[in-house]
Amino acid sequence: MAWTKYQLFLAGLMLVTGSINTLSAKWADNFVAPGCGGSQEHSFQHPFLQAVGMFLGELFCLAAFYLLLCRAAGHPDASMDPQQPFNPLLFLPPALCDMTATSIMYVALNMTSASSFQMLRGAVIIFTGLFSVTFLGRRLALSQWLGILATIAGLVVVGLADLLSRNDSQHKLSEVITGDLLIIMAQIIVSIQMVLEEKFVYKHNVHPLRAVGTEGLFGFVILSLLLVPMYYIPAGSFSGNPRGTLEDALDAFCQVGRQPLIALALLGNISSIAFFNFAGISVTKELSATTRMVLDSLRTIVIWAVSLTLGWEAFHPLQILGFLILLTGTALYNGLHRLLLSRLSRGRPPAEEGEHERLLGGPRTAINDAS
Fold first, then answer.
1. Among 43-52, 81-90, 138-147, which is the least confidently predicted range?
2. First-to-final CA distance of the chain
3. Taking the CA of residue 203 as centre, how many other CA atoms within 13 Å lie in the half-sphere pointing to its CB?
4. Are 255 and 33 in contact (CB under 8 A)?
5. Is residue 77 over pLDDT 80?
6. Helices (H), the chain
7. Mean pLDDT of the chain
8. What are phi and psi of 365, to 5 degrees?
9. Helix 124-135 with 173-196: angle, nearest 10 deg
10. Which residues pair with residue 41 across a beta bridge?
11. Distance between CA 107 and CA 57 in Å, rounded?
């Protein structure tokens, strides 16, 4: 079945905005500008402020939800699931997990390459699978266990490639190791977030745009308030600002004022996360969850290619092997092999039923997989 122009647009929008989200954050980190009070030029390393921007982007999804709701109300024939009343505080625990994981990942992005950052996020499969067995009582299929093992092998190969890439002048080896470990640590927290969402949130039939926006609201407000004590907390070697504190938002704004391109990078990060979430949900509705997974994997290739082209990182052949192994693990865990085998046998894909979802009907996948 050929894709329509609208479906092609959605797929392209998801691929482009998902890539921009990571690349814009890395682009901002590469800028050097003086800060407040005539301080010397230094890199723009403000991970917690960037995380606030990401939650602001998620908050825009709430506006998109109400726009779609108003549009559906104006068309009586439009199909939509009734929105049940729910307590917004249900989203507070997942939002706290999202806030913590996102902040850690932005810290890690300052220490490692954008491609490794994207590949190592595949570790979420391992912990999500294990936690779903432990806390949700699920039984994983053999292919899912094989997918987890393949993902572990892929992570080892990608990590080894980082260790061997000593010619990357942007990052010290100790920074790369620390960054990679922080990314994997963040995936543990993301997995806890997914389990919490499935156990307490999905049963309320909350639309994913509304869910993402509500979590964005909590994350934006809480993390914005935390910027105040972070201004005074010493962070030692983890600090990227002249004062040596956990975060210096004033220094960030001074750098933005002296280098306007930083503002462009931050704007790209904020806007891309909103469009990426909307496009991802729409792709699942119009095409399938499997298509969404494939596009998310293609995003890694785009980020890797752009990073190599711009000279942000050095090429290492092991990364290709690691990416292919990670891709295999993701495919096995998500059942893509069954879909391919069904296509080859000219039968109906077993995973196709139930994959298509209405835009105002919540899917049973992770509410926010774009952090």
1. 81-90
2. 32
3. 6
4. yes
5. no
6. 5-30, 47-73, 92-109, 114-120, 124-135, 142-164, 173-196, 208-230, 249-258, 260-286, 289-309, 317-333, 336-344
7. 83
8. -125, 180
9. 30
10. 34
11. 19
Task: Give the number of residues written for the chain.
Answer: 371
The one-letter code for the residue type at 171 is H
Q: What are phi and psi of 142, to 5 degrees?
A: -60, -40
**Which residue bears the tokens 């470990």?**
181
Residue with tokens 């509705």: 285
Q: Enter the tokens of residue 36.
A: 């407040």
Task: Mean pLDDT check: name the lowest of 47-56, 268-277, 284-293, 355-364.
Answer: 355-364
The helix-helix angle for 289-309 and 260-286 (nearest 10°) equals 150
The residue written with tokens 């956990």 in the block is 246
Distance between CA atoms of residues 187 and 109, nearest Å: 14
199: three-class secondary structure by DSSP: helix
Backbone phi, then psi, for 220, in 5-degree steps? -65, -45
Give the position of tokens 């952090």. 371
DSSP assignment letter at 72: H
